[in-house]
Design goal:
Blueprint lengths: L4 H17 L4 H36 L6 H8 L4 H7 L17
Helix pairs in contact: 1-2
Length: 103
């Protein structure tokens, strides 16, 4: 069940009117003011949620697919450090392989 902004504002107005009629009893006035504050907070929270939902849907619509170059960069295929690792920096003519365990 959705409550419209107009219904919330009407309820706030009713709480304010009741607070004004009971101006002599400060505890009752505070109760009505708290009710108005709660209704205001609910309205503001609802607007914030709707705003964030709109922003989320807008950002979803603006997404694009990554290009092939971007995918290669993400996968590390274009990284120069990987190309250097392929070369054997510890080459020795007497060694059987690149492993320390190769005798």
């Amino acid at each position: 069940m959705t409550i419209s902004n107009r219904q919330m504002l009407e309820r706030m107005n009713k709480e304010v009117q009741e607070a004004m009629t009971k101006h002599g009893d400060t505890s009752r006035v505070r109760e009505h003011v708290r009710a108005v504050k709660l209704l205001c907070d609910l309205l503001l929270e609802e607007e914030e949620n709707q705003g964030s939902e709109r922003a989320a849907s807008a950002s979803e619509n603006s997404r694009t697919e990554p290009t092939a170059a971007e995918i290669r960069k993400m996968m590390g295929e274009d990284a120069p450090s990987l190309k250097k690792k392929k070369e054997d920096p510890y080459h020795d003519d007497d060694a059987n392989g690149s492993s320390l365990l190769d005798f």
